[in-house]
Design a protein that fits this description.
Elements (H helix, E strand, L loop, with lengths): L3 E2 L2 H6 L2 H20 L1 H5 L4 H20 L5 E7 L3 E6 L8 E2 L4 E2 H7 L25 H6 L1 E10 L2 E8 L2 E2 L4 E5 L4 E8 L12 H14 L4 E11 L12 E7 L5 H11 L10 E7 L2 E9 L6 E6 L2 E2 L5 H20 L12 H5 L2 E9 L4 E2 L5 E2 L2 H21 L1 H11 L1
Parallel strand pairs: 2-11, 15-17
Antiparallel strand pairs: 1-9, 2-3, 3-10, 4-5, 6-7, 6-10, 7-8, 7-9, 11-12, 13-14, 14-17, 15-16, 18-19
The structure holds ligand 28F.
Ligand 28F binds next to helix 4, strand 3, helix 5 and strand 10.
């Protein structure tokens, strides 16, 4: 079949100025990223290398959050080549009037292009990872990258070398389904320490993503080597690739169950407690469950980005958790007049908790940007936890009693 070059005719309609402008913007962007990669992906060590995958997956997650994508497949191919594929609508291929090049080319070459940075009318309600620097950064840091789009019954393809187009977007055939597939090889000139991917590192973050985005199916497959499974009867099975399928309809409730089961913990109440609140400033979801251990395990996220150093969402939660225990305890005779108030540490013993907040403009603080700074979120979470957890205890006195006996 003859290859159809779809940009050629359209390009004539774009002014020379617009096209020249796009070219300059692309080259300047590329140069900036390759000059200071750390500014865009944190580091060029293993963390930055893995970050490339999360950036591409985040775009597919955004498409899932928009309601059009249910399955994301991530494959580590021989040579540590990464392929990410989704069954969304496919990145638009029509010519962007402003730059005179296809939208998909803009997404992969212009710094900060795409829905994430498109503001309120970008078509996406909740911005993805605020660390999201986008597909163009991954492209700039790849020795080569190919994007394939299935859309309107056709399949399109464009390839890049170190971020520069290696030819125009081409129609390469027919397509029965829709979606986007991106294949890339991280540039060893940029990732000088290592270009080797770690399965467990990718698995941990992708599982988090699947918990934080309830119902989205993410599969991770390692095609670098075959292994021979040992079956239940001790016989060897057929050689296969290591693969993990991650899909949780229960969202962060499933996350809490998973964390407890992984540690073999004995729960104090069978059902995970789930609290949710929303204001015009943002939304917060919290899942928690108590177990018979004395350890506290609290994970927090803002716009699906982990905040290991906590921040305002955690502060709001901790303050109100302590207040609920003391107020409920006093009013229901679980704390006597002579008893002292329970401390924060008392009420967090044996707690597993996942906090997830989504907000318009998250501010990440500190050296490693691992702490949420938005003050309005403290109030949102604090008010929500106080009213919703109090209500839960009122309606489930048996659960309240079981947890109280442990805290006192
Ligand atoms: C393997 C990685 O990147 N998937 C994506 C879409 C879908 C749309 C989109 C993406 C429109 C013009 C910015 C489709 N139809 N997977 C992905 N799927 N981006 S990324 O739009 C991006 C904006 O430029 C999409 C209608 N609207 C949006």
């Amino acid at each position: 079949m003859a290859e159809e070059i779809i940009t050629e005719t359209n390009r004539e309609t774009a002014t020379d100025h617009a096209y020249g402008g796009a070219q300059i913007q692309v080259l300047e962007g590329l140069e900036a990223v390759r000059k200071r990669p750390g500014m865009y992906i944190g580091s060029t060590g293993p963390s930055g290398l893995h970050h490339l995958v999360y950036e591409i997956v985040d775009n597919a997650i955004d498409e899932a959050l928009a309601g059009y994508c249910t399955h994301i497949e991530v494959t580590i191919k021989p040579g540590n080549i990464i392929e990410v594929s989704d069954n969304g609508r496919g990145i638009p291929v029509d010519i962007q009037p402003k730059l005179g090049i296809p939208a998909v080319t803009v997404v992969y070459t212009v710094l900060h292009a795409g829905g994430k940075f498109g503001g309120e009318d970008s078509g996406y309600k909740v911005a993805g990872g605020l660390h999201g620097v986008g597909a163009s950064v991954v492209n700039a840091l790849s020795e080569w990258l190919t994007v394939r789009v299935r859309r309107d019954g056709a399949e399109y393809e464009q390839s890049f070398k170190r971020g520069k187009p290696d030819g125009d977007l081409k129609k390469i055939g027919a397509a029965a389904s829709t979606g986007t597939t991106v294949t890339f090889k991280p540039d060893p000139e940029m990732f000088k320490d290592t270009t080797v991917y770690n399965f467990e590192t990718l698995e941990k973050r992708l599982r988090e993503e699947s918990f934080l985005n309830a119902g989205v199916k993410i599969t991770l497959t390692d095609e670098r080597e075959l292994y021979t499974p040992v079956l239940e009867d001790g016989q060897e099975g057929d050689p296969c690739y290591r693969t993990e399928v991650m899909c949780y309809e229960g969202g962060i409730k499933s996350f809490v169950t998973y964390l407890g089961e992984k540690r073999n913990l004995e729960v104090l109440h069978p059902n995970v407690i789930y609290l949710k609140g929303q204001t015009e400033r943002g939304m917060a979801e919290i899942a928690l469950q108590y177990n018979s251990s004395y350890n506290e395990l609290l994970l927090s996220f803002a716009n699906n980005v982990n905040t290991p150093d906590g921040g305002t969402h955690e502060e709001g939660f901790r303050t109100s958790l302590t207040r609920v225990f003391n107020d409920y305890g006093r009013s229901h005779g679980l704390l006597k007049d002579k008893d002292e108030n329970l401390s924060g540490a008392d009420v967090r013993e044996g707690l597993i908790c996942v906090i997830s907040v989504k907000l318009q403009e998250a501010e990440f603080e500190g050296q490693t940007k691992a702490k949420l700074g938005n003050t309005e979120i403290r109030t949102l979470v604090s008010n929500m936890v106080y009213s919703k957890l109090m209500e839960f205890f009122e309606e489930n006195p048996g659960v309240a009693k079981a947890i109280f006996e442990k805290a006192t």
